[in-house]
Amino acid sequence: MADTDSGARPRVAVLGATGLLGSRVVTHLRARGADVVEVSRRHGADASTGEGLDAAFDGVTTVVDCLNVATLSRRRAVDFFTTTARHVQAAAQRQGVARIVCVTILNARDPQVHRWLGYYAGKAAQERTYRAGPVPVTVVASAQWYELAGTLLAQLRLGPLSLVPGMRSQPLAADEAAAFIADRALESASAPAGDIAIAGPEVRDLAELARAVAAHRGGHRRVLRVPVSVTALGNGGLLPRGEVTTAPTRFEDWLRAGS
């Protein structure tokens, strides 16, 4: 097992290394001088079955879980995140990994939040599974990313119309979340496990952000804001609580930069 306290080059495994977040985490880790092991099916490892994880974690000090599954189904999300977390914990213990960094969504564990979204219920189950395992876990809870606005445009479409829930959030750029996660992954292996949160600089309505993205892209797509104020998604349930690191980039600046 590598030892970041000894001054040796840290060796970090990133699960979901080819995804939107994972690929950015890999880039930031390498820019900081880390030896990065990319873990994905493309690289010969499958966290859903556990195949290839032992080899991927060989000599690794820290594992970063950036896994994702494209689903709105509560059952599928809970099964995926529970199963993968169990396999990662087991392989990490066998290989002597010192710490796991689990990336989750801000307030996903709150029952009033995840009752409305199956994917969030899956992330809540992932957190519980990791905490129950033998390897210490740092949970990094991120607010929604600006990139989500584009995803919401495609999820529920009726011809040229996109139906987007009016969820209030404090979003940030995925790249800033990735940089924050990379920094946490490179902390001393003896750093205490626990929860850390990051969010953006402003409270925004995700439907309004989706409308701005649609206008920026051109074309004729219209956004219909669907009120969800009677749920925790619309009445502040997604906003940070307690101590949180604030990313600096505003949405309009991110959009103008062409991200």
TrEMBL record:
Q: Which domain of life is it from?
A: Bacteria
Gene Ontology MF, one: protein-containing complex binding
Where does the NAD-dependent epimerase/dehydratase domain lie? 12-96
Supply the InterPro entries for this chain: ComplexI_NDUFA9_subunit (IPR051207), Epimerase_deHydtase (IPR001509), NAD(P)-bd_dom_sf (IPR036291)
PANTHER family given for it? NADH DEHYDROGENASE [UBIQUINONE] 1 ALPHA SUBCOMPLEX SUBUNIT 9, MITOCHONDRIAL, NADH-UBIQUINONE OXIDOREDUCTASE 39 KDA SUBUNIT-RELATED
What is the protein's given name?
NAD-dependent epimerase/dehydratase domain-containing protein
Organism name: Kocuria flava
